[in-house]
Amino acid sequence: MTVVVKARTDLVVPASVRRRAGIKTGDKLEFMVSGGVIHIVPKVSLAAQDLTAAQKRAVDRDLAKGLKDVALGRMSGPFENHREFIESLHQEAAKLSARRKARAVR
After folding, report:
1. What CA–CA distance (Å, rounded) separates 47 from 51?
2. Are residues 40 and 53 in the same domain?
3. Range with the lowest mean pLDDT among 41-50, 55-64, 67-76?
């Protein structure tokens, strides 16, 4: 679809294009320009008002669990690079394996 840009009005995205892109009234859009091409990207937010009651409870539960882990020192990182992160994963996997073996012996 072609639209004529006029000097005194904002650029208009035709309704048929908005429908096909899934853009609805009230959606926030980000405009980015790269090499003379305009990219229009929806700004997706996980605002609390967008969540159902069950989703809010799940988020609150997971946040509480994460904060408890931090308070108890059950966290790792930050890592300088991906190799440090992968090494940490291997160490944790070895610990889990050793615990499972110890439980199986009992």
Report:
1. 7
2. no
3. 41-50
